[in-house]
Design a protein that fits this description.
Elements (H helix, E strand, L loop, with lengths): L1 H15 L2 E11 L5 E11 L3 E5 L6 H8 L7 E6 L2 E2 L4 H7 E4 L11 H11 L4 H14 L15 H13 L5 E5 L7 H16 L3 E6 L2 H7 L2 E6 L2 E7 H6 L3 E8 L13 E6 L2 E7 L5 H9 L4 E6 L3 H10 L5
Parallel strand pairs: 3-8, 3-9, 6-7, 7-8
Antiparallel strand pairs: 1-2, 1-4, 4-5, 9-10, 11-13, 11-14, 12-13
Helix pairs in contact: 4-5, 5-6
The structure holds adenosine-5'-diphosphate.
The site of adenosine-5'-diphosphate (ADP) has 12 residues, from helix 2.
Length: 322
């Protein structure tokens, strides 16, 4: 019994430290001479929710294109759960599920058929495929729509169908390219909940996004890529703790007609009752409240001006890299 449990623990440890995605020195120069990737190194641990973050044109889609053999790399290596994509792409393909930016299914095909046919590409027997399709349609809240043509689905349902389709062969790694680009806030929140659920159920997720809020809400590890190089990588919490200042918006109950700033802060007047206050990390916010209290000005509300990841992002990408 004791031996059994030790073996189990050892195996669990090995599993826990397994690398889902290992990218080394990845370079891509397109035919037109654009150097989209200038030597990217990335490591994604099994079970992680990993955000590949960067502005438009940073090279995010190129990385995904290489992993799915849509784009030929110029040089470098990529392994998916230890499988080198150059040596055994067919095996690597079974380990990875990709949700592209563009919807690319047959609009006349029914929801259930899209999933069962996709399973067919992976050689999954029809009966198994039917069961799996049911599981993922239920998970993605598409079950009621299973007999409908995909063209009749709402935008949000179509996105969920894309995810269900990417999961049908039960890949260990799910990659999503800008999954919520152009979708409204409500839909985005719903997608986040689905993705969190899938991750909690054991699927490693890599997501590209240029929405910092999205990375902050979902990811444990974040790599920031800009102009084809990784400029920062680390735990979300560590990245955020690098910030040494935060900006708050204070809404006042009545006008503050003075120029005197609260102690140790930078203050910008937006209008009569709105102030922008920059606070150093570790600063006691009570000092700010006491300051306004002294002048008989109550504070109606206070909020972060930007999310903190955004501040870090702006900080890191403001330098001119060529
Ligand atoms: P992101 O996904 O971060 O927006 P991309 O990987 O799409 O960035 O693009 C990285 C760079 O490569 C950009 O400068 C883009 O214009 C260029 N690029 C992307 N695809 C091609 C292509 N097929 N041919 C030439 N240049 C391309």
């Amino acid at each position: 019994m004791h031996r059994l449990s030790k073996k189990f623990i050892d195996e669990t440890k090995i599993m826990a430290s397994m690398t889902a995605l290992d990218i080394e020195g990845l370079k891509k120069r397109y035919k037109n001479g654009v150097e989209a990737l200038k030597g990217i190194d990335l490591e994604v641990k099994e079970g992680d929710f990993f955000g590949l973050l960067g502005p438009n044109g940073a090279g995010k889609s190129t990385v995904i294109g290489i992993l799915t053999s849509i784009v030929n790399k110029t040089s470098g290596k990529a392994k998916i759960f230890g499988v080198d994509i150059d040596k055994d792409f067919n095996k690597a393909k079974t380990l990875i599920g990709v949700v592209p930016q563009e919807m690319n299914f047959n609009i006349f095909e029914k929801v259930e058929d899209i999933l069962i046919n996709q399973a067919g590409y992976y050689g999954i027997p029809r009966l198994v495929a039917k069961k799996r399709a049911e599981k993922y349609m239920k998970l993605m809240e598409l079950w009621e729509k299973r007999h409908q043509k995909s063209m009749t689905l709402s935008g949000g349902m179509k996105r969920r169908l894309m995810i269900a389709r990417a999961l049908i062969h039960e890949p260990k790694l799910l990659i999503l390219d800008e999954p919520t680009a152009g979708v409204d806030v409500e839909l985005r929140r719903g997608m986040w909940a689905f993705l969190k659920k899938i991750n909690e159920q054991g699927t490693t997720i890599v997501l590209t996004t240029h929405y910092l809020e999205e990375a902050e809400a979902l990811c444990n590890t974040i790599a920031i890529i800009d102009k084809g190089i990784v400029i920062e990588i680390g735990q979300k919490k560590q990245l955020i703790s690098k910030l040494d200042k935060e900006t708050f918006i204070f809404d006042l109950k009545k006008p503050y007609n003075r120029t005197k700033k609260p102690p140790c802060c930078e203050m910008k007047v937006i209008d009569d009752t709105t102030l922008e206050i920059e606070v150093m990390k570790g600063q006691d916010l009570n000092a700010i409240f006491r300051h306004f209290d002294r002048y008989g000005v109550g504070i109606a509300s206070m909020r972060n001006k930007t999310n903190r990841l955004e501040e870090l992002f702006v900080e890191l990408t403001k330098g001119d890299r060529k």
